[in-house]
Specification:
With 208 residues, the protein is mostly helical. It folds into two domains: 61 residues; 109 residues, minor pseudopilin epsh fold (3-Layer(bab) Sandwich), CATH 3.55.40. It has six helices and three strands. It has a three-stranded antiparallel beta sheet with strand order 2-1-3, with helices on both faces. The structure holds fe (ii) ion. Fe (ii) ion binds next to helix 1.
């Protein structure tokens, strides 16, 4: 729980109009859903604060609201990582010669294997996220499935490439069985410069 004296979170703005294969209508609906996580994160914080103020930290209500923190916070943060690693001004493949490309090849054998693995994880049944994470302790990259928003995030790992595979991310543009096409579109819109900067930023911090 955070103190109420802290500034509430504000929904960020993302200029993604004109993506390949992901319509502006989908984005509009998706931004609205993201805003709900920001709102609920602030609301939960407020409710927990008031319960704490009333010395009700051991109540069932406090426990249940506390359990929701990971869901709402991660719903907010993962969406920010997701929107922020797409670009409408020309997504591209990770270049083999880039720092991230070399690190992915070291971790997966080659870039195609990373992409195949990331795509397969994104295609898993159920709603959630596919994330390429960096382990700052070893500089190794690995792909992970996150159920909902909170189950499967690896503590201390840094997200490098984040893809939403909840159905709301693609059902307005594709049929339920066409998640693969959506994943192709996500990768076509990938902001590799952003992914690279996340990798370099976290790598530098890991070294420091
Ligand atoms: Fe989403």
């Amino acid at each position: 729980m955070a103190l109420l004296t802290q500034t509430p979170y504000k929904a960020k703005e993302f200029n993604l109009s004109g993506l390949v294969g992901i319509s502006d209508h989908t984005l509009e609906v998706h931004f609205g859903l993201y805003g709900g996580y920001v709102k609920n994160t602030n609301l939960l914080t407020e409710q927990l604060f008031h319960l704490s103020e009333a010395h009700k930290e051991t109540s069932l209500e406090y426990a249940e609201l506390s359990r929701r923190l990971g869901f709402e916070y991660n719903g907010m943060v993962l969406h920010e990582w997701y929107f922020d690693n797409m670009t409408s001004s020309g997504g591209s493949d990770v270049a083999a010669s880039s720092s991230l490309g070399r690190a992915l090849a070291e971790s997966f054998g080659d870039l195609d294997t990373w992409k195949r693995d990331f795509t397969a994880i994104g295609g898993m049944r159920g709603v959630g996220w596919a994330v390429t994470y960096l382990d700052p302790a070893t500089n190794r990259l690995s792909n992970h499935w996150i159920t909902l928003h909170q189950d499967g995030n690896i503590a201390g790992f840094k997200p490098i490439i984040v893809m939403d595979v909840w159905e709301h991310a693609f059902l307005l543009d594709y049929k339920p069985a066409e998640r693969g096409k959506y994943i192709e579109s996500f990768l076509a819109n990938l902001d590799v410069a952003k992914a690279e900067s996340r990798y370099l930023g976290t790598a530098e911090r890991a070294i420091g």
